[in-house]
Amino acid sequence: MKRFTRYFFEGLLVLIPVVATIYVVYVIFTKVDSIFRFSVPGMGFIVTILSITIVGFISSNFITKKLVGLVDRIFTRLPFVKMIYSSVKDLIGAFVGDKKSFDKPVLVTLSPDSHVQVIGFVTRESLDNIGFSDKVAVYLPQSYNFAGNLLVVPKEQIVPISAESGDIMAFIVSGGVSAQ
């Protein structure tokens, strides 16, 4: 019975991420298919990819940058919308674009007399504007979660990690299970 239970849970560990990923992808693209009422399966995928690429092309144009800036200003002035819009925009911007903030992975010693360390990302190297000239801001993503904590730590308690930021983020979010 123990062997059966172990095999069952090992099967779950393999199947749940695969099935969840396939399900989410399936739901997104079938939704796009149903909105546009495509009769050809997979056309939603093609339309979604093309639409995102076209929006990216148009928004990078000089003339439409002003329109994108106008939409940005409007959304950042609306009370409830501002919170959602800014959070999502900052989160996406942290991983993609010119203002990447999760590109400096570090190992942080939590206390100078401790051997306990955590992995995070330096998001701001200067905190002079809030009176902490000798400290840096380090974001610690949480495993299996879309949350994290911001620590303010002395500069001497961080050690840069020479690895790809994406690999480090995958390692943290997977709870240390993912090893690229």
The total count of helices amounts to 5
Strand order of the largest sheet: 4-3-2-1-5
Q: Which class do the helix and strand fractions yield? A: alpha+beta
Low-confidence stretches: none
- The outline comes out as flat
Main pleated sheet = 5 strands, antiparallel
Number of β-strand runs: 5
What's the N-to-C terminus distance?
Answer: 34 Å
SSE succession: HHHHEEEEEH
What's the quaternary structure here? single chain
Percent strand: 15-25%
Average pLDDT: 77
Into how many domains do the coordinates divide? Answer: 2
Level of helix content? 40-55%
Cα-atom radius of gyration: 22 Å
Ordered list of secondary-structure elements with their pairings:
Blueprint: H1 2-36, H2 43-59, H3 62-75, H4 79-95, E1 105-109, E2 117-124, E3 135-141, E4 148-154, E5 158-160, H5 165-173
Antiparallel strand pairs: 1-2, 1-5, 2-3, 3-4
